[in-house]
Amino acid sequence: MNEIYEAIKRSAIRIKEAIEFDDTGYSDQTNSTGDTQLKLDIKSDLIIEEEFAKVPSIKEIVSEEKEDKTPLHANGTYSVGYDPLDGSSLIDVNLSVGSIFGIYEGGYAGSNLKAAVYVVYGPRVELVIAQEDVKLYRLNKKGEFVFIQTIVLKEKGKLNATGATQMGWEARHKKMIDAIFQDGYRLRYSGGMVPDLHQILLKGGGLFSYPATTDAPKGKLRMIFEVFPFAFVYEKANGEAIDGQRRILDLSPAHPHDATPCLFGSKTEIARVKKCYE
Ligand code: AFP
After folding, report:
1. Which of 210, 230, 260, 264 to mutate to test the pocket of ligand 1 (most atoms within 8 A of CB)?
2. Were both Cys, which of 92, 127, 253, 264 would link to 258 (CB 3.0–4.6 Å)?
3. How far apart are CA 65 and CA 82, in angstroms?
């Protein structure tokens, strides 16, 4: 597993360079869900594929930026699903973005996750690894990721990150979100799930939601590349992740690019969501 973490660290340093200096414009290509790809999306995907190709324990990879899976090493143990540059549409407005990795063994069901990693490209570059617990690392001047702290969520938080188009929210969801704000929670939503979920983890807790909407009943965020890895991180950090009723890590996609409604948070907030969605 460590050789996979090292490959992610090498990728993060190269992607950081690309974000800082490369062209942030759109390419003439689209990904499998019809999104026009940024040149940085394609470059980040290539960088990660190059680094993973050097890791014999990786049998196969699947990227949000590609339709199909890519076989790597026939005798490999793990399959890695990843979003090379999540929130990339925020780069040209200079907001934080991220890379997300799920390390699976035996298929892409939530229950097959063995570890999850994400990188935040913000004022500083930080990397979080979840295996038995959740550890935060920060990139230093020498190009090393230095251990900072173990992350543990409190039982109850104070932040509320509310995704998806509000006019498409179900009435019960809107009522719940309004009540949470009435209880004094502060709005924190940048439109980038990596920095938004990272902030809630580091600031002790709260709720991130990207629910089903009338125009997107399955939500927007993809299970294998985005939702399962963060559900794994949140659970290992003493939090929870559900789709409204079901535990996210009990889900299994029928297609690699399947999406699901998702709510991540501290135990108190998720209990409130479960009550709302009963
Ligand atoms: P992009 O990668 O297309 O910028 O989308 C970012 C994202 O996948 C996730 O990071 C955000 O939480 C969510 O989509 C933002 O979606 P809305 O723009 O619908 O709020």
Report:
1. 210
2. 253
3. 9
Distance 163 CA to ligand 1 centre (A): 8
Contact 110/243 with Cβ under 8 angstroms?
no
Distance from the CA of 142 to the center of ligand 1, in angstroms? 32
CA pair distance 240, 153, nearest whole angstrom: 10
Q: What is the pLDDT of residues 12-34, one digit of tens each?
A: 999 999 999 888 788 887 776 67
Q: Taking CA 61 as the corner, what is the angle to CA 56 and CA 67, rounded to the nearest 5 degrees?
A: 155
Report d(CA 218, CA 277) in Å as an integer.
15
CA distance 43 to 221: 21
Q: Ligand 1: does its nearest atom lie under 6 Å from the Cβ of 87?
A: yes
Instruction: Give the count of beta carbons closer than 10 Å to the beta carbon of residue 114.
Output: 16
Q: How far apart are the first and last CA of the chain?
A: 39
89 lines ligand 1 (CB under 6 A): yes
> Atom 15 (ligand 1): residue with closest C-alpha?
191
Residue 123: C-alpha distances to residues 40, 97, 178 (Å): 18, 10, 31
- Distance (angstroms) between ligand 1 centre and the Cα of 192 equals 6
Å from CA of 49 to ligand 1 middle: 23
* Res 198: pLDDT: 98
Does residue 100 have its Cβ closer than 6 Å to ligand 1?
no
Phi, psi angle pair for 83, to nearest 5°: -110, 105
Other beta carbons less than 10 A from residue 174's beta carbon: 14
User: Looking at residues 113-131, what average pLDDT do you find?
Assistant: 98
Instruction: Dump pLDDT digits (tens) for 136-160.
Output: 999 999 999 999 999 999 999 999 9
CA dist., res. 10 & res. 144, Å (int)? 10
